[in-house]
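Deliverable D4.2, example record:
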Amino acid sequence: MLIPVVLSWFRKSPSTDAAEVKSFTDHLDDLRAMLFKTLAALFIGFNICLVYANRLLRLIEQPLYQSVAQPERFLQSLNVTDSFVLAMKMAFYGGLVLTMPILLYFIAQFVLPALKPREKKLLLPVCFFGALLFLAGVALCFFWVVPQTLKAFIKYSEWMHIEPHWTVGSYVEFVTQFMLAMGLTFEVPLVLLVLVQLGIVKAATIRKGRKVFIAVAVVISAIVAPPDPLSMVLMSLPLIALFEVTIWVAWLMDRKKQPQLTP
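Output generated by the structure prediction step:
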């Protein structure tokens, strides 16, 4: 029952709304207002996360607790300013994740007047599913990819007869950047579906490009994932699975336009 509801968000509907014509100065004012609201939201999210930086650190350490028996012996602080710099980094990344739906809303407000009626109908579902896919990618990375990667690194260190001791800063940077990268790469299927709905790309083209996308997923994973083969594989597998789902959703969207299509 969910798929028809989702597809109904993408249906065409004629609209007679006329786009308001604005001068270049008005556009600059709108851009300035959007940037101000975006920075204000980030500032508020940053400060909220800064207050709870110690709890954020405990949360980010959870994948390590799932990977080893004595996680406290792995993380160390070597510099005087490590704690302060670490709190600032976690507050920034946490504020970015916390305010992501609000940031998408402000950006949507800015681009809305420039969109055609058909494109405006896509704005709400795109924002909703964009935030949903981003959070899904972050959650998958946090609860599955990161713990598996940490276990592999620890076992490899044991095989090399090296006792692993990581700085807390490098660990937090590894986890947060990995989660953000996974969340952003989960947006690729949504972009493809929007292109299908707008008629720029056909579902058959996406289906024929399956091998190409697998190669692209591996390349993306190699670029944004931490520099090791296991992280690249663990990141590319969900992307490939998500692309297979995208192929079927794109086919269903095209089928509503041309019922004679076959998968």
